[in-house]
Amino acid sequence: MINNNKVLQNFYTSLELKGYKGKIVSAEHIPDLRKDVQKHREQNLLDPEFYEEYKSYFEFEPEVDFPEIKSLFIISLPQPQFEAIFHWNNKKISLLIPPTYLYGRKVIDHMIEFLNEILEPEGYNVAYAMLPQKTLAVRSELAEYGRNNITYVSGMGSFHRLTTLYSDFPIEQDNWQELRMMDMCKECSACTDKCPTGAIPTDRFLLRVERCLTYHNEHPPETPFPDWIDPAWHNCLVGCLHCQKVCPANKKVMNWTEKGPEFSEEETKLILDGVSFDDLHKETKEKIEKYDLVNYFEVLPRNLTPFLKI
Description:
Elements: H1 2-18, E1 21-26, H2 30-42, H3 48-53, H4 55-58, E2 71-78, E3 81-88, E4 91-97, H5 104-119, E5 126-128, H6 133-139, E6 144-145, E7 151-152, E8 160-167, H7 190-194, H8 213-216, H9 242-245, E9 257-263, H10 265-272, H11 282-290, H12 300-308
Parallel strand pairs: 3-9
Antiparallel strand pairs: 1-2, 2-8, 3-4, 5-8, 6-7
């Protein structure tokens, strides 16, 4: 127990020094995460197409190379929005990329390294966990849900990225709470009023994901936007910021923007023409890799079109 207390103290001290936030919960709660998802499904609150698309995420099976998972470490790292610039018809088009989209793998690797530095000297192991971590973040008291179903962390608002890691570190006591919405949401309807698609309801807590712009603009070009989506509603290169921009909990972070990639008119045309990543010029490929847009490259031609008025 002495070593365990040392690990806990080191973990929370290191979080504070880095400007991160985190919690540890027992692996005994893993079945509860599955039940939360299944409960929503049984109540017909999850769009069937959406569920099938993310089925492996919802019906996760932990896989690690150590004998037993005893705990879950969930860590939140502050992350900005990024500005991408496209040159088109002698104009400069600036588009935002919301937090949580870029540098995902880099953050995961960094968090594994961060936690290993704390646990390895004491003989414990870690492994990346792919599971419903927004639910875990709220259940563990690391975060609270907004009415928009986005997680908010104290001091970070929604400008953060969550990472969850399995470990064989034993945790004897944790804080496991019911899913809850921020108190400020109870008397606030800013996000509901701002959402152009009606994705944020007032008659239930769970988002209508089938109406959410974020869900629809993460699909490849062969999947057309539904006819009911007005092109004027688009506001980001990928994802959506309508609800986050007006949220009072984001007042201190909303202007936190860092520079993203800038594409010349020639590069923009190649992207719009659907040229494959491998066939791009070396400089363009390096730029896309540098800013971690490879995973979203195939959605760019469709997402760019409304902004360039083609």
